Amino acid sequence: MRALVMTAPGGSENSEVREVGTPRPGPGEVSVDVAYAGLNFVDVMARRGDAGYTVEWPHRPGLEIAGTVRELGAGVTGLAVGDRVAAVPTGRGLAEVAVARAELVVPVPDGVPLREAAAAPLGLATSLLLLTDAGRFTPGDTVLVHSAGGGIGSAVAQLVPLLGGGRLIGTVGRPEKAAGVQEGGYHLALPRDENLAAAVRAATDGRGVDLVLDPLGTTALALDLDVAAPGGRIVLFGNAGGGAVDALPPAGRLLSGNLTIGGFSHRGLVAAAPDRVAAATARILGFLADGRLTFPVNELASLAEVPAAHDLLAAGHATGKYVARVGA
Ligand SMILES: NC(=O)c1ccc[n+]([C@@H]2O[C@H](COP(=O)([O-])OP(=O)(O)OC[C@H]3O[C@@H](n4cnc5c(N)ncnc54)[C@H](OP(=O)(O)O)[C@@H]3O)[C@@H](O)[C@H]2O)c1
């Protein structure tokens, strides 16, 4: 079978599609004939060689897939060969066949295209869990989302109205992305420059925001604290730049501001609470099935197109969510 292989740290020059052995499921696992696989920034972090993201080279990326069940490992119940499923694989998802733990394999309802389903297990599930679990979103909240033009940012804009609605302010690294972010559902999109704090305060009549979703390590944390309203929650969920992160602010800053800083890790939940990832994936697939959620994705025609798309993500030029067509 064919799979994407990253041969060494770097860029697309070190990625290639290769023939590799077809994996078989172990006990409690399921193998899937992959129809579509989602691309995520974590693939880029692994490709760059960020600490903790690559166990060995060559590296086989890919952490969300949709397709049909190929084979059941010993002890797996409730699934059958041929079922349409979405899953978080045990890595190596950008391939024609991938293996996943059965508890992270979720049936795809009739009528939901596998193309959109491939964005559910990591990207859309993360966006939902950021809002509901980590962010404790309540209807009417004002939410500030950094890197609003990407896969997670675009999904948050689709999900907030489904959760009761709120006011959405997005930030972008490049001003030219702002118009697309507003077209994607944000009420306001702002460049991350020296005027950002003042612009957020002006946009909220000086009150500030109830929730900040921040994947920028700690580079924007001082701003987040500045613009959070009393009772505000700041959720740190990434380190796009890949550098060292700073210490958290003194407790007094949180006490005096009535603020909460929290963290979110999909990988952490996959390891320690996979039921929560599966439940979020199933909820997303339900939204897609009943038509409440429509989530446009950028389709790549084959695995061969993935390295160039990873380059776009790495350079901060990607817009929206990317999925690659892999099999039939
Ligand atoms: N904690 C978790 O479980 C979890 C799960 C999924 C994703 N994430 C994080 O969420 C973020 C969005 O993920 P995604 O898959 O949807 O990717 P994405 O948003 O499509 O692409 C990443 C975005 O990060 C921004 N960025 C900021 N600094 C950057 C840098 N030094 N190099 C490259 N890009 C930089 C860019 O947007 P701007 O320049 O417009 O800011 C870029 O478009 C990523 O940081 C990812 O690691 C975390």
From TrEMBL:
Region described as Disordered: spans on this chain: 1-26
Presence of the UniProt keyword Oxidoreductase in the record: yes
Keywords: NADP, Oxidoreductase
Domain Enoyl reductase (ER): 10-324
Protein's recorded name: Zinc-binding dehydrogenase
Pfam families in the cross-refs: ADH_N (PF08240), ADH_zinc_N (PF00107)
SUPFAM superfamilies in the record: GroES-like, NAD(P)-binding Rossmann-fold domains
Domain of life: Bacteria
Keyword Endoplasmic reticulum found: no
Family annotation (InterPro entries): ADH-like_C, ADH-like_N, ER, GroES-like_sf, NAD(P)-bd_dom_sf
